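Quick note —
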Amino acid sequence: MRAYHPGDDCGRIVFDPDEIMRKRGLTDAGLCRRAQIRPEQLRRYRQNKIRFVTLDVAERLCFALECQFTDIFHYLPPAGEGSAAGEGTAAGEGTAAEEGTAAEEGTAAGEQAF
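Predicted structure written out below.
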């Protein structure tokens, strides 16, 4: 196991609430209403364009979905790291080049970049 160095690819966290939402019978609008987030904020989470998340937002999402953090946020290790790393990606994921750097994008009230 090696130490992290600035610039290392350390994998990524993706937001995927679809299965839980389907089980709960929740639409995007219903989740936004229950979690008190804007539709635009949910869209950006779904597109994995948010690079920072506050515990407050994560707690509200988990409360609204009646789930655990790990039910909706998943870690994908960097490609080529270990035997399980890089063996697949979640549906709808783009590359870092396609997504750009969301960290420099602005945030709205109550929203932190993920």
